[in-house]
Design goal:
- The protein has one domain: q2cbj1_9rhob like domain (Jelly Rolls, Sandwich), CATH 2.60.120.620.
- About 30% of the residues lie in helices and about 20% in strands.
- The strands form four sheets. It has a seven-stranded antiparallel beta sheet. The protein has a four-stranded antiparallel beta sheet with strand order 5-13-8-11, with no helix packed on it.
- GO terms for molecular function: metal ion binding.
- InterPro entries: Phytyl_CoA_dOase-like (IPR008775).
- Its cofactor is Fe cation.
- This is Phytanoyl-CoA dioxygenase domain-containing protein 1.
């Protein structure tokens, strides 16, 4: 997802792994075909995206393309000095607003290539120094790889990316954000249910589109995506917004960022939303299925296109294998009459957008 990763308590690994075995035996590889790839193969380019709010495109990137991006990231990590700045841990639990919400390094990553640690890696002791430890300690790298790095820029502004975005209905897209997610073996944290538009908020309508590229196989064991089909027709529930108490009133004891609740859950939001908001956190795959989520295991090179209002999640990585992904998030630009919220965390310069136009690399 775009940023939300709120940990929801300790998992019961024995029960969870038993469930995985049952699911793997029953239906190991049918989900992506059910949700749109066969329709895409027939040439309409949209599949079931309008109905489900997501679509899977197998083989979108070649193995060579994926390997090239992973090699480039390994070079960037190798050149990164963990002691060159104060450690920034990417929290996604109840500490999110006090972590990212008070982290200048995080806010400055809008126009940079910044490195964020896994909470579990940071808890293990002093700063990582050996290359292996350093490489395995990272949660993510962001948020301007698509602007600053030639390898990631080449993919981000490729014809095939522009084509799929156009086929899905975006007319004048700009690219505010990119990020590389590691989903580290054993410690790659879960991403609880969220909508990307919470973090990439636009007016007068929501226009976020996520392009989630699997650089490695994403499986039930290593933390594949789960999505709730049709949930993109529900309103955005909250906005991760700049806190006026900090930025306007200059009360620097307050967090920079806060969650503002937008859409109270009631009978008008539909039965799917009522199921998803049932009491208690989603702690197991059984919980997720009960709330209407389906898993999306995909092969290396597959692309998952995600509507900004789609409810989606991923569980922690309990396997010995990583689950690297490269993710782009787009919005409609000013030409389409759409405005990037000045209260979003990610701002260029003095704010107001200025993001590169998809495929052209020019400011719009």
């Amino acid at each position: 997802g775009a940023m939300s990763r709120e940990l929801v308590g300790r998992r019961r690994p024995g029960k969870w792994l038993l469930w995985l075995a049952i699911v793997a035996a029953a239906a190991p590889s049918t989900v992506c075909q059910v949700h749109g790839s066969s329709a895409l193969a027939q040439g309409d380019g949209v599949g079931t995206f309008p109905r489900d709010g997501f679509v899977v495109v197998p083989g979108f990137a070649s193995d060579d393309e994926c390997d090239r991006m992973m090699r480039r990231m390994a070079e960037l990590v190798d050149a990164w000095d963990p002691d060159s700045h104060e450690k920034s841990v990417f929290h996604t639990d109840e500490n999110q607003t006090s972590a990212q919400g008070s982290d200048r390094y995080f806010l400055d990553s809008a126009e940079g290539i910044h490195f964020f640690l896994e909470p579990k890696a940071a808890e293990t002791g002093p700063s990582p120094s050996p290359v292996v430890t350093k490489a395995l300690s990272l949660n993510k790298v962001g948020h301007a790889l698509h602007v600053l790095d030639p390898v990631f820029r080449e993919y981000s502004h490729s014809t095939k990316v522009s084509d799929i975005v156009a086929k899905l209905g975006w007319q004048h897209p700009v690219v505010p954000q990119s990020m590389y997610i590691f989903k580290q073996p054993k410690i790659g944290g879960e991403v609880t249910p969220h909508q990307d538009s919470t973090f990439l908020f636009t007016t007068p309508r929501q226009t976020c589109l996520g392009l989630w590229l699997a650089l490695e196989d994403a499986t039930l064991e290593n933390g594949c995506l789960w999505a709730r089909p049709g949930s993109h027709q529900e309103p955005v529930r909250r906005h991760f917004a700049r806190n006026p108490g900090y930025f306007v009133d200059q009360n620097f004891s307050e967090p920079m960022m806060i969650f503002e609740e937008l859409a109270p859950v009631d009978e008008t939001t539909g039965p799917a939303q009522r199921d998803a908001s049932a009491p208690g956190p989603i702690q197991t795959p059984e919980d997720a299925r009960a709330r209407g989520f389906v898993p999306l295991p995909v092969r290396k090179g597959s692309l998952v296109a995600i509507h900004g209002e789609l409810d989606h999640l991923s569980f922690e990585n309990v396997s010995p294998k990583s689950r690297h992904t490269f993710q782009l998030h787009l919005i409609e630009g000013p030409i389409a009459g759409v405005t990037w919220s000045p209260r979003n965390w990610l701002q260029y310069g003095g704010g107001g957008g200025g993001f590169p136009h998809l495929g052209l690399g020019q400011d719009m």
